[in-house]
Amino acid sequence: xxxxxxxxxxxxxxxxxxxxxxxxxxxxxxxxxxxxxxxxxxxxxxxxxxxxxxxxxxxxxxxxxxxxxxxxxxxxxxxxxxxxxxxxxxxxxxxxxxxxxxxxxxxxxxxxxxxxxxxxxxxxxxxxxxxxxxxxxxxxxxxxxxxxxxxxxxxxxxxxxxxxxxxxxxxxxxxxxxxxxxxxxxxxxxxxxxxxxxxxxxxxxxxxxxxxxxxxxxxxxxxxxxxxxxxxxxxxxxxxxxxxxxxxxxxxxxxxxxxxxxxxxxxxxxxxxxxxxxxxxxxxxxxxxxxxxxxxxxxxxxxxxxxxxxxxxxxxxxxxxxxxxxxxxxxxxxxxxxxxxxxxxxxxxxxxxxxxxxxxxxxxxxxxxxxxxxxxxxxxxxxxxxxxxxxxxxxxxxxxxxxxxxxxxxxxxxxxxxxxxxxxxxxxxxxxxxxxxxxxxxxxxxxxxxxxxxxxxxxxxxxxxxxxxxxxxxxxxxxxxxxxxxxxxxxxxxxxxxxxxxxxxxxxxxxxxxxxxxxxxxxxxxxxxxxxxxxxxxxxxxxxxxxxxxxxxxxxxxxxxxxxxxxxxxxxxxxxxxxxxxxxxxxxxxxxxxxxxxxxxxxxxxxxxxxxxxxxxxxxxxxxxxxxxxxx
Length: 632
Hints:
Layout: E1 19-20, H1 31-41, E2 52-53, H2 79-82, H3 101-120, E3 124-125, E4 131-133, H4 134-137, E5 159-161, H5 166-175, E6 182-191, E7 205-214, H6 221-236, E8 244-249, H7 250-260, H8 267-274, H9 282-292, H10 297-307, E9 310-311, H11 313-321, H12 323-326, H13 329-348, E10 354-357, E11 370-375, E12 420-424, H14 428-433, E13 440-446, H15 447-460, E14 473-477, H16 483-495, E15 500-502, H17 510-519, E16 524-528, H18 530-535, E17 537-542, E18 555-558, H19 562-590, H20 594-606, H21 613-616
Parallel strand pairs: 3-6, 8-10, 14-15, 14-16
Antiparallel strand pairs: 1-2, 4-5, 6-7, 7-13, 8-11, 9-10, 11-12, 12-13, 16-17, 17-18
Catalytic activity: tRNA(His) + L-histidine + ATP = L-histidyl-tRNA(His) + AMP + diphosphate + H(+)
Protein name: Histidine--tRNA ligase, mitochondrial
Pfam family, one: HGTP_anticodon
């Protein structure tokens, strides 16, 4: 209840409802409420007939309530009052989506895989606000600054949603001067007002998983470890080498621009144009350089001779042997770094995953040294044969309001893009601290793009093994339902760290229990029947066993051994599933010889379970009768 002396700020006319006094029940409110009613009714800006109640004040829920009673509750508005005045389409904003079901399972698997790699390399996590002061983000992203979401003024502070996790990390280091070195990882949402392509993972709200090494170390050692981390993440996700780490060096790119004659004040803008070569043909990029950015055509042609080159140490040797480039100071530093990096990558065993690509530029202004992006076959837009060097055609949909907001998932010229990117940024912390510099290098994984490619790959391979949850055991019962016994079994399994469920029915039918277990692919079931309850035993059954398998009908174990037996069987099943997955990966990805596949399959066959000691106690067909067939 508003105090009597409190001024009334406003009254929304759209919420006013007319109600005759004769139909209004007697008010039970205290005098202060009646005074407030009179104040509204006779206010000058309304000028309404006093015989009409122009609004409904909230009434106290009971006659015993009073404003001084802190337990007083007010009536909630009816659903009719809360309903919007005009109908609208119920949907999420463009470039966003809800996550549920198997999509969440796949995404959580990606998160867990990435996090395990980060921790393996000594990473510690931090968290920062989802929005930052606008001046923190300003001037850090080059031409992409236009994609920052700005917020309305709140209490005198002008803020924006974070564009990435790198700039907030640099701000964090500048504010915490006691931290001079750290391996930090951060998994959180970022926001960009980009043109969405939802099915390809190009969204306006999306997750990034960042790993950064901050501190002063010998050259290229942290950089090499970050690239090693990239390979571990994608191998852990099962990509089996189906990706390429494109790398370049800002000083090499700047040196090429200087030697080719690019004015110093145009280097960053020309760099952002070159960065589009993974999406546009050279003719379009050259046109942007000359017509939009005012670069001389001959200078653009000289740049074009270099930025189309790719390789490894061979390309580096070509640059080193070109006299005009070798004498450039920026080129010298960049080539020294890359030569050292290639040595370290070979020691880490990941040199075969990288490609030295002179077209890679990374448009963000804060990079100062090594830069890299991770691409896969699904990253690039679709290009039909013969169109590689053709100019892109303008869209036919012109003049349509809000067209830049349209989803471009079906546009063949739009690819997923890079699935991870990063580089060295030695001066970013100093932009905030003003004095001390903390060199940093890092990588950012685009989870939504990784998810899009992973899901498309699973669909192509017709892989339907994704489960909605991780339940290991479903506890079932015959006959009387044995609800309390099922609850007790679940409690014992939970105490042992085993994921278990049961059907919330007092007397569930067996088919309904099987349906619930099979719907989520639960690997094991525990059965309770009259005989099991009397003898203090349970029947453990592995779901999905073929006819004729010795354990098709399950095995009997004592209640005291139940959890231990389940753990043994779960571990054995996980090992078998992993061996099967590895065998499938060998066959599909690497295209190895048939004999090697047969060897892998033989290992899987040899690892299949035999009857455990617990099964000897009683199996179907022995002296102890089993319940009715649980496979019904």
